[in-house]
Specification:
Elements lengths: L2 E6 L6 H9 L3 H8 L4 H20 L7 E3 L5 E3 L6 E7 L2 E7 L4 E6 L5 H7 L2 H5 L6 H19 L10 E4 L5 E4 L8 E7 L2 E7 L7 E4 L3
Parallel strand pairs: 1-11
Antiparallel strand pairs: 1-5, 2-3, 4-5, 6-10, 7-8, 9-10
Helix pairs in contact: 2-3
């Protein structure tokens, strides 16, 4: 079972819709939603919870027990046949569910400050940026690195500059600490956002669809 689901945070902007969806969440997700200061972030976290419930239901394990890795990556306890990963950024939340390890990242297209560019990208990666639409290129490049970090569950304990991304007939990533040779990247634009899935599949075989609760 392989699928990518995404939804706009605005899908739960109506107070009644938000309240009903919030009440359907497990207590752990409710606590996480409440922890956010801004309404936008609370909506995104709620959407992530809805997508997780839907993704696990489609995988046939709606009541599976969720555990967490050393850097906080969630996974299904005692299952090595169903993997998932969540992301939210800007106005969109997304989930990838797969029968192989998977990472996903979604980001709004935005300008990068020069010091940030130098901190997260290598000189040859910066040199590969096209003359036009550099913001989209940098955002896509970041989602490649982030989706790989999320597949391995490292968080930012893995320096983004330890990941070397090259471009040709396909995107290839290399990292001295992790074996990335077999990993592939599926990237698509959703309005003013970029979504990337990292997995061993080439291409990722599942559908990508918008979810509406």
């Amino acid at each position: 079972m392989n699928v990518v689901l995404w939804m706009y945070a605005d899908a739960v902007s109506d107070p009644g819709t938000f309240s009903r969806a919030f009440d359907s969440m497990p207590s752990e997700r409710q606590q996480k939603i409440r922890s956010f200061r801004f309404e936008r972030d609370r909506r995104l976290s709620l959407c992530a919870g809805l997508l997780l419930c839907e993704g696990l239901k489609r995988a046939g394990v709606p009541n599976a027990e969720i555990a967490y890795g050393p850097y906080g990556k969630p996974y299904l306890r005692d299952r090595d046949d169903i993997w998932f990963n969540l992301s939210h950024g800007g106005r969109i939340a997304a989930i990838a569910v797969s029968d192989k390890p998977v990472g996903i990242d979604v980001e709004p297209i935005r300008p990068f400050e020069e010091d940030v560019l130098r901190r997260v990208f290598l000189p040859e990666e910066l040199a590969a940026a096209p003359d036009g639409d550099r913001e989209r290129f940098y955002t896509a490049l970041w989602t490649v690195k982030e989706s790989l970090m999320k597949l391995f569950g490292t968080g930012l304990s893995l320096d983004p500059k330890e990941i070397r991304v090259s471009f040709g007939t396909r995107v290839v990533a290399r990292c001295a600490r992790y074996d990335c040779v077999s990993l592939r990247f599926f990237t698509r634009s959703i309005d003013d956002h970029v979504l990337t899935v990292c997995s061993p599949y080439d291409p990722f075989p599942g559908r990508t669809e918008q979810y509406e609760p």
